[in-house]
Amino acid sequence: MAHVSAAERRPQLIKAAIDLMAREGVAAGSTRAIAAELGVAQATVHYTFGTKEDLYRAVIEHLTQELVEQVRQTAPADAGFEETVGVLASALWRTVRDQSRSYQLLTELSLFALRSPHLREALEAHDLGVVNVTAGLVAEAAERTGQQLAQPAQMIARFFLAGFDGLTLQRLVHPDDEAEFSCLQALVSSTVALARGRVEMVAVPRDLAMGSVSSA
Length: 216
Hints:
The protein is mostly helical and 216 residues long. It has helices spanning 6-24, 31-38, 42-49, 52-72, 81-98, 100-114, 117-145, 153-173, 177-196, 206-209.
């Protein structure tokens, strides 16, 4: 049998892990099961990645890069700021609808990673990466269209992603096309309003929000 290098085997194992866990869940993603999915020895997984957590990290990075690249490719080059945000949001939402298994897997991996010190670092990098990419797209659209941002691009990105993550979870739990589309439109409108300074910032008690109130 011809020797296959670790560099060649790596993407094959990532795909096998994604196919298996998207179909059966993260709990089913043992190195033995992933090796069987590809038809290789279990030792091949450990030789290529070291540990299961390293393979999971690669899966998170791959899914994130794949989804972000799809959205980048749809970014309009000559549209206004509001239209640009709307197009990007629609493109991102299309990936949720078309690749719901990938989003469900990302959600499961994120929850799993919160309880794994080794993976939590990867999760934080994933989250920061998504925020930075989104903030970059917002900043690029603002610069191209001459739109002055009333809030930092990072804040606008976090606001949008928080709402989008909520819609994604609702989609996974209880799909409702009409309600989702209306909420997506509201999220885009709110994001644009925040960027343009048309949202009144309501004071939030910082001590309550940050948990600094001592008990009586």
